[in-house]
Amino acid sequence: MSCYPSPNVSPVTKVVPDFAFAFDIDGVLLKGGEVIPEAVEALKVLNGKNQFGIDIPYIFVTNGGGKTEAERCQDLSKQLETVVSPDQFICGHSPMREMADVYGTVLVVGGEGEKCRDVAKTYGFKNIVTPGDLMKSNPAVTPFRKLKDSEHNSCKELDLEELEIEAIFVFADSRHWGDDAQIILELLMSKNGRMGTVSETFEEGPPIYWSHNDVVWATNYELNRYGMGAFRVFVESMYKHQTGKDLKTSTAFGKPQIGTYQFATRVLEQWRESRFGAKGAPKTVYFVGDTYEIDIKGTNEYHETVDEEWYSILVETGVYAPGSVPAHEPRQIAKNVLDAVLHGIKRSHVGETGSLAKDLVL
Ligand code: G3P
Ligand code: MG
Fold first, then answer.
1. Which of 109, 205, 246, 255 has the fewest C-beta atoms lying within 10 Å of its C-beta?
2. Pocket test residue of 61, 94, 175, 212 for ligand 1, highest count of atoms within 8 A of CB
3. Is residue 35 part of a domain?
């Protein structure tokens, strides 16, 4: 269950629709950090600016990360011009909080500066080490990069002889692939996560967890850019190149993993109850995404496993190239997120006859 604090708000409406929305963020609501114009209007429509005057529940399910959920929601609230609560927000690394008690000393990789160290702290990880700490402790670890003064100050010096990394968590996209890969590969091939050692079997190193597996993602550049999934391919290929073995202890969270959708269902149910006073799961969840290998695949597969309807909508504002044939077929293709929202409302609330559906929960 979500362990985020409840928002200090009372339920907004007495009429709760039996449908809801779940939004991917990059390529749907934002691109390169900028708001996709139709996104603000789409959320206004869900927040009651529709011909029926109803508020429609929605949550956000992004593979992105690198900040605490609370910080990210503050940013999103400004960008999307509506209050976004951590109670309606899931990012790629959110499920990692459930592993904080499993490991003692962990290497936390990715994100801007040392921000992911803070995220890991809020999740309850006890002994957090970053690549910066290792570089500060022995600068020869990464021959082509020296820490800047500001980085040096925010990192800690460790006794590497004593250090034993029990697991590696890639919280967000690596900003320094070469240096991070150097360190990750050393540890994967090490004896029990000790720097400067080499295992004879190459199978004694710590497991590695990725917050998602997106090979590409949509930014404000005209072509898609490589993401964490591409970095994972690089690390795993190098491991195989060096050892002749497949890396068996590599696990990805995020979409399209079914666990992420199960987690999203719990968050949505709690959100409907705390914010809208409605119990249980909605009849239909419209999932709006831009990547068919991730968002559409995950939604379609999850739909097959649950009683509720999870209805996939692919938008044309992100990774998906309009006109091409998606390898995972969405239930609907929409030009943008506003069209996706209007499609869902029309389908669930108006019905084919154009009259209001009679199945609203009062
Ligand atoms: O790094 C984030 C990106 O890979 C995808 O984010 O919001 O499209 O799931 P999102
Ligand atoms: Mg996306």
1. 246
2. 212
3. yes
Q: Which tops the pLDDT comparison, 7 or 324?
A: 324
- Domain range for 146 is 95-252
The CA distance from 104 to 336, in Å, is 44
Q: Residues enclosing ligand 1, CB less than 6 A? A: 24-27, 62-64, 173, 214, 217, 227
188 and 322 together in one domain: no
Round to whole Å and give the CA distance between 146 and 267: 42
Q: For a pLDDT cut of 70, what percent of the chain falls above it?
A: 93
208 SS3 class = strand
Crossing angle of the two packed helices 37-46 and 337-345, in degrees rounded to 10: 20
Q: Is the dihedral of CA 243, 246, 251, 257 positive or negative?
A: positive
Q: Identify the bridge partners of residue 103 per DSSP, sorted by sequence position.
A: none
pLDDT tens-place string over residues 260-273? 999 999 999 999 99
Read off the pLDDT band of 15 (50, 70, 90): confident
In a domain? residue 6: no
- 35 and 105 in a single domain? The answer is no
Q: Are residues 162 and 284 in the same domain?
A: no
Average pLDDT, the chain: 93
Q: What is the dihedral of CA 26, 27, 30, 36, to 10 degrees?
A: -170
pLDDT range class, residue 350, cuts 50, 70, 90: confident
Ligand having the closest approach to the CA of 217: 1
Closest atom of ligand 1 to 214 CA is 4
Q: Do both 160 and 78 map to the same domain?
A: no
Boundary residue ending a domain (252, 272, 289): 252
Rounded to the nearest angstrom, the distance between the alpha carbon of 53 and the centre of ligand 2 is 29
Work out how many domains the chain is built from and give that number: 2
Pairing of strands 250-252, 284-289: unpaired
- Residues 276, 354: one domain? yes
Q: Single out the residue in 214, 230, 252 at which a domain terminates.
A: 252
For residues 181 and 126, membership in a common domain is answered with: yes
Work out which ligand 1 atom sits closest to the CA atom of 295.
9
Q: Quote the ligand 1 centre to 63 CA distance (angstroms).
A: 4
Q: Please give the pLDDT value at position 143.
A: 96
C-alpha 11 to ligand 2 mean position (Å):
30
pTM: 0.90
